[in-house]
Amino acid sequence: MSRPCHDISSRAARRGTALAFVFAGVLMTGAATGAWPEAAGGSEPGPPPTHGTADGRGDADRIVSESGDQWASAYSAEEYAEMAQSLAGEYVGTGIAVVRTSAGRIEVSDVHAGSPAERAGIRPGDEIRTIDGAGLDGSPVTDAVSRLRGSDRPERAGPGSTVRLGLERDGRTWETEVERARLSIQPVTVERDAPGAARIHVSAFTRGSADALRAAVAEIPAEDGIVLDLRGNAGGLLAEAAAAAGVFLDGGLVATYDVHGSQEALHAEPGGDSARPLVVLVDGGTMSSAEMLTGALQDRNRAVVVGSRTFGKGTVQLPSEQPDGSVAELTVGHYATPSGRTVDDDGITPDLPVTPGADAEAEAYTVLGGLAAGG
């Protein structure tokens, strides 16, 4: 590693001071659920998706069904192009993010600014009861996302197409038609919720997200601490997550991984901001490359991790185009954190678990204050 040993020891001691400062007020926690936007491609914690025999996925469906790979996915050429576009920071949809409530209903958790949904008057907290006349009670979030985006009927989707939503708010029900449009994803947002601190939420590791994170950090005064909010981040591109680690590390190992048995390593670029107080906020919706970033910052004693146990997906998938043009995405290996930990099944345990129902952000700011006081 490029940092002198005494720097690492100092960070570890400061981290220990912060843990002692707040540990008495923090209890054990269970898993949390996240909100799943259309832009995230519909991923959600829970059982792996089933794979039917939709048009355009023939060869990929066969390979996936025979693989026994719980993380494998089959796509038609059009579906894969749409997913690749999402990773590039764009998607076609209405601008609605949804979450499944404890009652099994689909609720709007966020509305993309300037989107068709916002223009239609849809607000966070609205319940979506029907999509194009079909009920949603008990449906998984992935089903609602697919129907909102039109992925279930791609021949009738695309910019300019419409979807009819049955909504409920405060006991009032109504229907409205919402147009789909091409929307840009803003994966990095900054909130100044407390003096001397900033919360940076990274919703996904799409292309360019690391550069956006670096730019956001550069705008925050050097003396201010940062809460890096990775709740609900279902992952994305490993290279972007590794580059994001370089925003807070001065070089060194981020993760190792294998591809068909061949060992590879990801390293942070030197020159990152390795001094300011940093807390990483996670939950059960923190997955894949977001877990890789969390594990790197935790293992390197760069951050205190607060929240609930992460999802536990430590696999690497690569796409393979099939003769009929469909795409099978199959697991080719696993990654490990700098200390050699794998996250499959177990996920990452926070340094300070937050009790279910407690204010995780408030706990994160308390820890951040401890880091600043101990620094």
Description:
With 375 residues, this protein is α+β, with helices and mostly antiparallel strands. The protein contains nine helices and 20 strands. Strands 1, 4, 5, 6, 7, 8 and 9 form a seven-stranded antiparallel β-sheet that branches. Strands 11-12-13-16-17-20 form a six-stranded mixed β-sheet, sandwiched between helices. Strands 2, 14, 15, 18 and 19 form a five-stranded antiparallel β-sheet that branches. Helix 1 packs across helix 9 (360-374). The longest helix is centred in the first third of the chain and has 18 residues, at 5-22. The model is unreliable at 1-55 (pLDDT under 50).
List its salient traits.
disordered N terminus; alpha+beta; 7-stranded antiparallel beta sheet; 375 residues; 26% helix; 9 helices; 29% strand
- First and last CA, distance: 22 Å
* Count of beta strands: 20
Strand fraction: 25-35%
What is the approximate shape? globular
Q: Quick one: biggest sheet?
A: 7 strands, antiparallel
Q: Structural class of the helices, strands and pairings?
A: alpha+beta
**What level of helicity do the residues show?**
25-40%
Give the low-confidence spans: 1-55
Mean pLDDT: 82
Number of helices: 9
Cα radius of gyration in angstroms: 21 Å
H/E order of the elements? HEHEHEEEHEEHEEEEEHEHEEEHEEEEH
